[in-house]
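Review session, final week

We close the course with one last complete record, chosen because it touches almost every idea we covered. It is Trk system potassium uptake protein TrkH, a protein from Breznakia pachnodae with 460 residues. Go through it on your own first, then we will talk.
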Amino acid sequence: MITTVKRILKLDGFSPSQKIAISFFVVILLGACLLTLPISNVDGEVFSFIDALFMATSATCVTGLAVAAPALQFTVFGQIVLLLLIQIGGLGLMSMVASIALSIRKKLSVQNKLAMREMLNQTNMLDFRKFLFGIIRFTFIFEIIGAIILSFAFVPEYGLRGIYISIFTSVSAFCNAGFDIIGSSSLVEYVNNPIVNFTVMALIIAGGLGFIVYFDLRDKFKAFFKKKISFKMLKQRLMLQTKIVIVVTSILIFVPALIIFILEYSNPETLGNLGLDGKIYGALFSSVTLRTAGFATIDFAGFYPASQFIMIICMFIGGSPGGTAGGIKTTTLAIILMNVICNIRGQEKTSLFHRHISRDLIVRSTTILVINLGILFLGIFGLLVICDFDFMSIVFEAVSALATVGLTLGITTLLPTVAKIIIIILMYVGRIGIFTFLVSVIRQETKKSVDYAEGNIMIG
């Protein structure tokens, strides 16, 4: 076993970025093969490989787009395969294998530490072992607590099977995957259920904040409760990333929820036929799930175009770095917006919460935005050429795939084969990250920098 783990983790001859890309590809391919087996399917037949590949990619990339409802298509064996893919995809195969390796031999090579650092979007890794095991512990604690709370809603309705449904839903929610095994309409029948609504929303937010934010909050609040620091000091000592993530995430949850509540208040296809509690739950849940979770308590196809447009923007932004969510990330948005604001004000430097933002971070954030938009436009163009759906549905589907959200306006099951392949590529690229993907496929050349004469170009 030690030899096997060593071989899987080492991947000699590959860069850290390539190790990440390969690890996800291997998991997806293995998962697709298992899902095609008759034992995985209710009808006892072989599942189409392209459809199995789509489902495996969606699960491993914690997206949630599905060409078949897991509750209706897969047996318990197939559903467990899907659940394992979600858990592996949420944590990352290399994180899990690294945990096993650390348990066996207590250390990792420098190259593998670099791969882990890149996968977890960290610039520093002072105590790698503590950080990695902290992630595993944090994940399972939240998933177990979530499953216990959800069982109060599902066990009375489904009996002992409700425990299984609770576990599956909890893992899927924390990993921002969006898969369920209840039926073919996600969580629509639970739009008025406060236990399901608030538990799933809490799991989505917890998984999407990012592990580094959780550790920072844990350490600072531990010091606060031990009376080592005051509440004012607690706020001052929080990491810059933690402050940005909390503020931007809060805005991206409550502002869209308010917009959806107002726009859809009288829409009979969404919030119109619900009571006040149901309207509030529905609007808030619809906003939270845009953090790249993929669950739905309301049919998104029924929303007005204005609401769908707001949702597309929120999906594209996504969650926060270092967690289970996708998108360009909240920190990227904050850096780009503050850079624009500071430029408009004529300030030479960009700052956030009284901290200077380096030029490298600004350049990287802008690059991430531009490349994401470029890949998204290519995906949309390809889908428009191949498919005959309306423009809004195609844009919604493409953004949902690239940002690993998993929401749809109802066209996923109707996609032709080539369109499914495009969506698969978008989900894969969106999960491993634009930088990681490009670095893994493009040869990096080290050349001496050359200083050219400055050029002047008219813009704006």
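Two points worth writing down before the exam:
The mean pLDDT is 85.
The chain has 20 helices and two strands.
Good luck, everyone.
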